[in-house]
Amino acid sequence: MLALPFPVIDPVALEVGPLAIRWYSLAYVAGLVLGWRYMLALTGKPAHTVEKKDIDDFLLWATLGVILGGRLGYMFFYKPAFFLENISEIPAMWHGGMSFHGGALGMLAATILFCRKRGISLFTFGDLICAAVPIGLFFGRIANFINGELYGRATGVAWGMVFPRGGPEPRHPSQLYEGALEGALLFIVLAVMIYRFEALRRPGLVAGVFFAGYGLSRYLVEFVREPDAHLGVLFGFITMGQILSLPVILAGLWLVRRSLRQS
Fold first, then answer.
1. Predicted confidence (pLDDT) at residue 1 exceeds the cutoff of 90
2. Model pTM?
3. Is residue 212 part of a domain?
4. What's the structural domain count of the chain?
5. Structural domain harbouring 202
6. What is the pLDDT of residues 52-90, one digit of tens each?
7. Per residue, what are the HEC states of the chain?
């Protein structure tokens, strides 16, 4: 069976003495920094009321929300029993184990608290955040690919790859599918909405399209993504990722409906 060779890249991007800087960490840094700069650029759009100093101050809140939420989400959604028995593994994020859905909840909590503290409209500020999130998603999925983790199911397609930890069978490079859909494509769709159709004038619209778009992208890719070994396919037909994506899609559709009705 034909298969593309997996481009083996060292997960460690740079080593300085005992310090090892991994691509996974750099993906988070790139997503947060570039997302912050993009949000700053969007504050200059007409009718927007968020000040640049608010974006600067929110960067720390966003970092804590994403990291803590992503890790806690992975622990509770995917491996609660393992972490109860291995407490020392909780901070070991360099071993992998972050959940987007948990990170989204952590970011939501940070956003709500920050907006209340500053007296900023949650929907207005949320639109800026959601416009930038696909940047981080894109880099995160590229890091997953470099690490050879979260690969897809066995396949006979011409672009299947044999992953180092995935056995001898070619598999879907599902990390790249997700990077393309929930990262690059979703970023472009939201940017067109903002710059061509002035979507920021309707608070909640950009956030709604983001959540619905992410949830749908993740739900579809789950059909070719290898289910978590300790969970498998639940109830014989659905994965944990798909279950968690359904409320995200519904929340996005609700936000879109709300923004259009109030405009």
1. no
2. 0.88
3. yes
4. 1
5. 16-262
6. 999 999 999 998 998 888 888 788 877 777 877 777 777
7. CCCECCCCCCCEEEEECCEEEEHHHHHHHHHHHHHHHHHHHHCCCCCCCCCHHHHHHHHHHHHHHHHHHHHHHHHHHCCHHHHHHCHHHCCCHHHCCCCHHHHHHHHHHHHHHHHHHHCCCHHHHHHHHHHHHHHHHHHHHHHHHHHCCCCECECCCCCCECCCCCCCCCECCHHHHHHHHHHHHHHHHHHHHHHHHCHHHCCCHHHHHHHHHHHHHHHHHCCCECCCCCCCCECCCECHHHHHHHHHHHHHHHHHHHHHHHC
